[in-house]
Structure formats: C-alpha cells, structure tokens
Write a structure and sequence with these properties.
Blueprint lengths: L1 H52 L1 E3 L5 H9 L1 E6 L4 H10 L5 E4 L3 H12 L3 E4 L13 H11 L3 E6 L13 H9 L3 E8 L2 E3 L7 E3 L4 E10 L8 H25 L13 H8 L4
Parallel strand pairs: 1-9, 2-5, 2-6, 3-4
Antiparallel strand pairs: 6-9, 7-8
C-alpha cells in the first residue's frame, strides 16, 4: 500500500511538471516576442524624455569627431555601469559607433535598442555563458575596422560580468591590430537609479544634468606585443578610466563607489610578472 501510494504521488508530480512545462513553453515565446518589440520602443521614448528635460554638457566629447577623422577611426573604452545611456547618448551627439552584444534574448533586445540609435552591432560579446558567445567575433571586428573608414568602436571593458572597474584587454588588442588610437569615454548624470546588478547599472532620471567626458587619444606602445608591455599599457588605461569616473562622481556631487579603486601594488606586480 505504501509503495502504491508513493507511486501515485510520483505520478502526480510528473504530470504536474509536464503541465507546468507546457504552460511555460506556451507563454515564454509570445511574451519574449512582445518584450523584443516593446522594450526598444519604450527605451527610445524614455531616453528622449530624459534628454529633452535635462541639461546636457558635452564638454570636449565632440573632439572625438576630429580624432575619428584624423586617425580613420578609434577604439572607445568605457565602464559597464553607464551602459544604459550608451545607445541614445552617443546617438544624441551624432556618433554612429560599432559595438558588441551577446547572443540570446537579452542580447537581441539590446541589439534592437542599439540599431534604433544607428549602431553597427557585432553579435557574440564576452558573456561568461557559452551559449551567448561566438568565437571569432573579435577577428571580425578587426577585419571590419581595417576595411571600413572612420569606424569608432565602443566597448565596455569590465563587461559582461565584471569585476567592475577592472579592464579586460579586448579593446586594446583591436586597436593594436588595426593601428588605431584608444580613447576613454564617460557619460554620467547627477540623478540616477542604480539597478541591483554586478555593476549597479545606472539609469538616468528626467530633469537631470548629463555630462560627457573624454580622455585620449592613446596609442598602443610598441612593447605591447609582449605580455608585460600589454599589461603595463592596460594598467595605465585602467587607472585613467578610474580617474575619469571619479572625476564625474565628484563633479556631479556623488560619493565614490567603494570599489572604484586602483589595483594594489601586489596586484600590479602579479599582472606584470613574466609568464612561466
């Protein structure tokens, strides 16, 4: 009797799981399609409101147009926390950047936002999930920059999973392979909502103050073909991008995040140590 009772309970559980799976499969596809259609439109409406009601200070960011013309392109590096503003914010200053977006549903949604703002998007990204990566995407970006005029890449150098304020070297490698300069970019705002993500993504609010910051151009040094030279250049850029972010926090009256700090001497020594 007990065995029969256990079998009946297991049977009910299996049927319940099948029902739940069927409902999930029936709902996910139409809801995903609705989100893919609606979210990019809502993003554009919201960002137009933010920029229409805010004081926008481009600073020396328009100088980037001159850098792109003079050097036939550039590779722009920025922190992931400002990613929400990247699509509309660069479009607002009449740039047409190229960037990365991961595969998968979220990547598709982000791609649609970027395309609405005139971006050229490469799919593959640097996601930690294999299903959201595509091998060879960096090679494709290098080939594209070499064969197209005045390409400006915008790359979040601590994405897609962090750690925050720690630079990865993909953008530098693209600049090195294409013989293009690197620039450091920053867009920040006085008032924002911080999302509970690994980077605490900032969403600017309407009736705001929005400032753009630019540093560079930087040129990849000749010794960057060695691991030590590459890491030394990366540390220089990382330090300067941290300084740029800290400047934006101070000028807009905000406390600095506790993790917006440069690497310790021990971390630097480990990065610059020769490979075994």
């Amino acid at each position: 009797c007990r065995r029969r009772g256990r079998r009946r309970r297991r049977g009910r559980l299996r049927r319940l799981r099948r029902v739940r799976r069927s409902l999930r499969n029936a709902l996910v596809r139409p809801l995903t399609a609705l989100a893919l259609a609606a979210v990019p439109r809502l993003y554009m409406v919201y960002m137009k409101l933010v920029y229409a009601t805010s004081r926008v200070e481009p600073g020396d960011f328009p100088h980037l147009h001159e850098i792109i013309r003079e050097y036939d392109g550039a590779v722009g590096l920025l922190w992931h926390e400002e990613v929400f503003t990247v699509a509309y914010g660069y479009h607002h200053l009449e740039f047409r950047p190229h960037t990365l977006a991961s595969l998968g549903t979220v990547g598709e949604m982000i791609t649609r936002m970027l395309l609405r703002c005139g971006f050229v998007v490469f799919r593959g990204g640097s996601s930690s999930k294999a299903s959201r990566r595509r091998t060879g995407v960096v090679k494709d970006m290098i080939e594209h920059m070499k064969t197209h005029r005045e390409v400006i890449y915008g790359i979040t150098v601590d994405g897609s999973q962090g750690p925050a304020y720690r630079m990865k070297n993909g953008g530098i490698l693209i600049a090195q392979a294409c013989d293009r300069p690197v620039i450091l970019a920053r867009t920040w705002y006085r008032r924002a909502i911080r999302v509970k993500t690994w980077d605490r993504t900032a969403i600017p609010l309407p009736w705001n103050e929005i400032r753009y910051y630019l540093a560079g151009p930087y040129f990849v040094p000749e010794d960057a073909h060695t691991q030590e030279g590459l890491q030394r250049f990366l540390l220089r850029l990382e330090d300067d991008l941290i300084d740029l972010a800290a400047r934006s926090y101070r000028e807009l009256g905000q406390p600095l995040p506790s993790n917006l700090v440069k690497r310790s001497a021990a971390e630097r020594e480990a990065l610059l140590a020769p490979a075994d």
